[in-house]
ABC transporter ATP-binding protein
Amino acid sequence: MAPYSSTSIAASETPLIELRDVSCGYGDRVILERVNLRIPRGKVLALIGTSGGGKTTVLRLLGRQIKPISGQVLFDGVDLAGLDLDGLYAVRRRMGMLFQFGALFTDLSVFENVAFPLREHTKLPEAMIRDLVLMKLNAVGLRGARDLLPSEISGGMARRVALARAIALDPDLVLYDEPFAGLDPISLGVAARLIRDLNDALGLSSIIVSHDLHETFTIADEVAMIANGRVVAQGTPDDLRHSSDPLVQQFVGAHADGPVRFHQPACPVNQDFGLGVSA
Ligand SMILES: Nc1ncnc2c1ncn2[C@@H]1O[C@H](COP(=O)(O)OP(=O)(O)OP(=O)(O)O)[C@@H](O)[C@H]1O
């Protein structure tokens, strides 16, 4: 976590993350257009929206895996585009990332998986690494599973190990890409509660990309809905639940039809099947 200093009060007024008028894409294809987002410190922000809308792309912008075509991505007030490689690595160390299914190293024990970022990014003595790893494993309830291999633990436990690994370096921000995918309802509830509790206990900020609206709405302070490359709604979970925007209503209410059509535009049915009716 960032050390306190005489500038910390001013710094705390700056959002940890800000996207200012960001457009970006892959090759010639524009994916996000003039997106504005602010992620206040200490909060859990959920990014929701239709598949392919650009949620993961926002996470990639934050890690500067991709750069904007225009606009700025600010981390703690600093424009990521202006950082040299050392600066970029320093910023990335302040971000923990948990990607779909956790992606643990299958040939390393639970302990070594969590120790990995500490060994990679610090020169801490072994005794301190041990204590830090056991503290993180304790925080996710898995200190007792330290010697097991990923193949010997359940999917829900693996996700918690990945979470312990994501917070190993005491980040300021944790990015979660589909943290609940493939979990049974109990493990899902446990993972969601853990994300919220760790956020509050460790003074983190968190961004969750998820299609699991029920669980996400339970733990998020704010939700931003991304569709067609734009932020179409941002507010508290209740704001979105009660939004009058037809697209938000369709998405949050899980309705098959609405602004996002079930049917792709097509020629009349009778033309294809000769039925004498039209779609
Ligand atoms: N590396 C890439 N190269 C080219 N196009 C890409 C690349 N990554 C993503 N895209 C495209 O960019 C668009 C946005 O993708 P992104 O993964 O950000 O969406 P998403 O909202 O996270 O989707 P989902 O909910 O399905 O995970 C999609 O149309 C996708 O096909």
Notes: Residues 1-11 have pLDDT under 50 and may be disordered. The chain is about 35% helix and 20% strand. The chain has one domain: 17-253. Residues 50 and 138 are 36 Å apart (CA to CA).
